[in-house]
Each structure stands twice: as C-alpha cells, then as structure tokens.
Design brief:
341 residues, alpha/beta, Nucleotidyltransferase, domain 5, 3 domains, five-stranded mixed beta sheet, 13 helices, 16 strands, binds adenosine-5'-diphosphate, binds magnesium ion
Length: 341
C-alpha cells in the first residue's frame, strides 16, 4: 500500500488481538505489526522485559525472575494487567504523533465477556485512543476474505486460531449463529506433547510441539508420510534426548482435537436456518486463522460435511485485513461494529 502523508498524522489503527498473534494495521499503511501475543515480565516489579517475538523466544527458557505470559490464552483475557501492557505497547509503537489521539478498532474473539471488552477499551483509551470500537472476529474474518457480509446471503467462516475455533454463519451484517470452542492450535500442541510423553517418555516444550504440528501435523493421510526428530528431556533419566517421530503418529496424536473441531462444525451446520443452509451448500465453508494451514484439514472437513471447503488466502492475516477495511471505510462498515458494550 502507498504511504499516505495524511494518515501519518491521523493515526487510525486496527488491531487483531489474537490468542496466539497480535496484528496491527495502520490506515493508509497496511499491516505494520505482526507479533506473538506474548509478554515477558519481571516477577519482582512486574515490569515488561520483552513483548512479542522476543518474549516468545524466552518461553520455556526463563529463570525464576522472569515470567513469560500469554495474556489472551484461551480466547479470553487470562491476565488483565498484562493484556493491558501489551495493547498499550503495540498502540504506542505505531503512534507516530502523540498529539493526535488515534481512533482504534480492536477485533476480539466473539466469546469475550462484557468485562473483558471493558479491559480492552480501557487499555486502548489509556494508551491514548480517542475512540475505541470493537468488532467480532468472525465478522472481521469474513470481510477480510471479501465475503458479501451485508447481503442476504449466508456465509460460513471457520476460524481456527491458537485458543479458540470460531464457527459462524453470517448474513445481512450480522452473525446468525456462532459457536466457539476452546479447541484450536494450542490444544493440538498439547495433544502432541502428551502423545510423545506417553509413548516415548519424552518431555517436550510448547514451542517444540508447535513446530512439530506445523511441519508434520496433518488431518488426513499424506501423499508421502514424513519423519522428524523431536527433542526434549527424557522423563526417566532426566537427560536430553531425541526421537524419530512419523507424521502418522502425529496424526494419531491430533485425532481428539480434530474430532472436536469437526463435530463443532457439523453441529453449527445442523443448527443453521434452512434458507442459509442452502446458501452454504452452494458457497461452502471458508477456513481462516493459522489452524487452517494444518495439512489436509480442508480435505477432512470436505469429507465430513460434503460441502466445498476453501482455505482463505493468507489465513493468518484475514482478520486484521478485515478490521483494516472497516477502519478505511467506517461509513460503509460501521453497522458491523459491536455496539454499546
Ligand atoms: N502451518 C501450520 N499448520 C498448523 N497450524 C499452524 C500453522 N501455522 C500456524 N499454525 C497455528 O495457528 C495458530 C495461530 O493462528 P492465529 O490465527 O494467529 O491465532 P489467533 O487468532 O488465536 O492469534 C497457532 O496455534 C499456530 O501454531
Ligand atoms: Mg485470530
């Protein structure tokens, strides 16, 4: 996107506050921040030591004085105080001109409670925002993939993030049915870690588990099954150890969380109004969020639902791009914002 001189002063900001990643879009500039939603703080004085990538690199490698926190852990705000520090820090990072207070639109998981919305609003205001709007994640995702959200046509979005899978049917600027489950990327990582622990007596960290998932994880048999080396600590000897693991084994490890996601999608379809079901039958399901990248997940969902399933282009940025669209054209999209709470 072309650099726009006026937007440099206007400071309008869209934020996708995800459980795994936070993305920030500045009006006229596009996506300017893309960082893990992780904060490292010092235990003694609760001061921030690092935020984002740098904090994530410290995960599982800290000493007693440093605590690494994921404030948005399960699709809700797990730690108010740290969430606030993170939101403030990201806003300040893109705020070039402190004299002009920014307008901020934050995209939130649709399961957040009223008091969590309050925390988000307060943090943004504390960071200097003059105006704070909220938008529900599936709505932003739908905009980001260019679905006709204002028309009387049913669209189905399945967003698989870190903490939650959000399944929504949208039509006429609103969410018709919404289903959010706390099974998504993190749960897959946990299942992989547990599987390796049970079968190999090997204790692996959260980041190793995620790395395995992204590299050999799958929801369907692969054309060519692959192996990789998992590294961790032997539970018996306490020594560092490495074992060879196959993609078939990791698929077995992922069976439970994947069944939960598939079941939730089927349930959402069963509950959808008949007229919209017909639309979805024709138009299919769109997958967004990082979990959409799990190998074979689209095929698995296609087989289980008999519907067309498509992975959004660049699934990790759909939500922030959708939120950015609202920011760029608030007149057109203001009806999509969450109101008075
Ligand atoms: N190639 C991949 N295969 C499977 N999962 C992936 C892949 N890339 C990213 N993920 C997972 O996607 C999740 C993050 O997605 P994201 O949409 O950013 O979540 P959130 O909106 O909750 O912040 C993480 O659990 C991450 O491990
Ligand atoms: Mg998300």
């Amino acid at each position: 996107m072309k650099f726009n001189f006026m937007s440099f002063f206007s400071n309008e900001i869209a934020i996708d506050l995800g459980t795994a990643n936070t993305l920030v879009y500045v009006k006229g500039q596009g996506i300017v921040i893309r960082e893990p939603s992780v904060v490292a703080i010092s235990r003694s004085d609760r001061k921030v030591i690092a935020i984002g990538k740098q904090a994530r690199e410290m995960m599982g490698k800290t000493h007693d004085e440093i605590e690494v926190i994921r404030p948005m852990r399960d699709g809700v705000i797990d730690d108010d105080e740290v969430a606030e520090l993170m939101i403030r820090s990201f806003i300040r990072r893109v705020q070039h001109n402190r004299l002009v207070r920014p307008r901020v639109i934050v995209c939130v998981p649709s399961g957040v409670t009223k008091s969590e919305k309050r925390v988000i609003r307060d943090s943004a205001e504390y960071a200097g925002a003059r105006e704070v709007h909220l938008i529900a994640e599936p709505m932003a995702a739908a905009l980001g993939v260019n679905l006709p959200v204002k028309e009387p046509v049913g669209s189905m979005i399945v967003d698989i993030g870190g903490g939650t899978t959000e399944i929504a049917i949208l039509s006429l600027s609103g969410i018709v049915t919404m289903h959010s489950i706390r099974t998504a990327g993190d749960e897959m990582d946990d299942s992989i870690a547990q599987f390796i622990r049970r079968n190999y007596n090997l204790l692996i960290g959260e980041r190793m588990a995620e790395w395995i998932k992204c590299n050999v994880g799958s929801a369907m048999p692969l054309p060519e099954e692959i192996n990789l080396t998992a590294k961790g600590r032997d539970l018996v000897s306490g020594m560092p150890k490495a074992v060879e693991i196959s993609s078939e084994e990791i698929r077995e490890a992922l069976a439970d969380p994947l069944t939960q996601i598939v079941t939730a999608v089927r349930e959402a379809l069963e509950k959808s109004p008949p007229e919209l079901s017909a639309d979805i039958r024709d138009r299919g399901i769109i997958l967004t969020g990082g979990g959409a990248l799990l190998k074979g997940l689209d095929i698995r969902l296609r087989e289980e639902t008999n519907l067309p399933v498509n992975i959004a282009e660049d699934p990790l940025t759909c939500v922030v791009r959708g939120t950015g669209m609202v920011l760029e054209d608030l007149d057109t999209y203001s009806s999509l914002l969450l109101h008075n709470n």
